[in-house]
Amino acid sequence: MTTGSSDEWLHRPDIWSGLVLAGALGGRSFQPTLMPRPTAHQALVTGVSGALGFGIGNLTYGVFARTGSAPGDIALVGGVAASSFGLSRAIEAVLHRRHDDRDRHDDRDHHDDRDHHHRHDDSEPRASRVEWEPLVHTATSALAAGATAAAIGIVVRAVPADRRPAVGAGLATLATLTGARAIRKGIRAQHDAHTEFDPPPAKPLPAVTQSVGVAGGLVVLVSGFRHTAGVLARVLDQRLGVPPRASRWIGRGLAVSAWAVSGKAVADTFVSSLRVYDRVVDAGFDRAPSSPMRSSGPGSPIAFARLGREGRRFVLNTPTAETIATVMGVPAAIEGIRVFVGYSAAAADEERVELAIDELHRTQAFDRGLLVVGCPAGNGYVNTLPLEVLDYVRLGDVAAVAVQYGRLPSFLTLNRTTRGGRTHRLLLERIQQELAGRDPADRPRIVVYGESLGAWAGQDAFLHQGVDGLDALGVDRALWVGTPFYSGWRREVLVDRTVAVPAGSVLEIGDPEPIRNLTADERARVRAVILGHGYDPVRYLSVGVLVRRPPWLHEPRPWGVPPTMDWLPGITGIQLIVDAVNATRPVPGVFRSTGHEYTADLPSVTLDAYDQPRPDPTRWDALLDHLRAVDAERASHRRPARESQVRR
Questions:
Q1: Please, which residues have CB within 8 angstroms of residue 259's CB and are 6 or more apart in sequence?
Q2: What are the beta bridge partners of residue 402?
Q3: What is the rounded distance in angstroms from the CA atom of residue 349 to the CA atom of residue 419?
Q4: Is the overall model pTM greater than 0.90, yes or no?
């Protein structure tokens, strides 16, 4: 790579090229996205964006600034910038026109399936779409930006050495002013986009300062890899007598192997530390239930310690019969049943499912009127709020069961969704077998629930079958919340429509109103409800967003997507990853409908999705107030434990 006449960064045009594009992308990274970002997360996004820009600008200069003269390099780089920009714009026009054509087709054929808060958001290509166009568009956009930055580096190189400090100072001043303007504009737009329920935007100066450290760390890692290969090549050449050409290739191979082994060791250590999560005992969830109606209670063969962290919450977040009677004002109430089989309770999925069936028999769960089969997320999490709502509304005539299939957070359990779907399906099959000998009038209604990764894994149980899969396993209704982008069942039924379903049988909504406004006949046709906010980043996060503008960033946008949010190749994907981290901001005792948090929607949607009667408004409001109070109380139990850990 051409570096100029000095190793000092001030005299290196490739460094200037990288810094120019790093500053431009770093400033753009402050634009608002789906969720607000605290200062540390903004620094992470800006740092990664800056490092990406530095690499593109630096590499573009090294590849094209090789004619030996400033005019020749300017001509070549200018031609590359102009042609790349023109090609990227042409491909973008084609992609935009294709999106508009598909949108008009969907609006004409499926407009009855949409509501005012929701649009389909298939940002990945269907099988019939051409794959190379978005990749070429992203590559040409990056090349145009890199060539423009390289042109500035060439100008710096052409300046006499004695005048270079003054020119550099001028460029730095201009870049600082331009960047400050972009950052201020981005911060203002973040504030305007997220004002109703979110904390204030990131603080500009700390975010920029920290981002320099992030970018510097990434550059050091890349440089370290390059230097490792060089050092190994020199050792092979000078100490072992390996031919120079062979030593370079062998050195690179050894460097890749060494860095890969080191990276894997670090990753394995990180993952091993996260497995401890399942063994953590939270304050307020540290005593086994005293009721035989719950797993690990009296008579249960499952030890309390084997439930895992989320399993303990699942069985303990259950109201007593007395509490139900008090809140609902009806003396005749029973206690709901909770069955949970933790990952540590048995060695194989089949054994865990058999344990769950035994527990369902032991607790007489098959005699209840409603049996909710939950599919956990990657760490075993099942939101108990819908279950508690059903407990109160049905006066305890509810049983709920879930089988854990993993112990790690969802972002590390993506490869287990197939296993989760298989476990969920096996549990449903065994329940169906157990109920086959009963009179239909004596069987409980079977409904399924899944949230986030649990929704994806739960839908996998019915893959390629549409709602026929529900019928085949005896499932009456399904409710899936915050479904991740890559759910195959949702794509088959609602996006690509490769699996036909009866009209009105699958309803995708962004809030409770669409299902509340259905007539009785329309509601009777609903078999599956998919609840997802229009600005939930978990629903949009995909590899494709790195290289193509997703449909939800076209107009009209789903409710909640900031109007000033723009798509930037590569960077938007990074922003979405950070958005997904910030998508759930629980406030104890407060039910909200924001991002990937659905607590404000779930009570109402649960009743309508499962076709349950709604209490009178006064009783319903009292129930919601009670659930909020219980949520705050549980948080207060956990808080002293965290404070004591901090003191230690």
A1: 225, 228
A2: 340, 374
A3: 9
A4: no
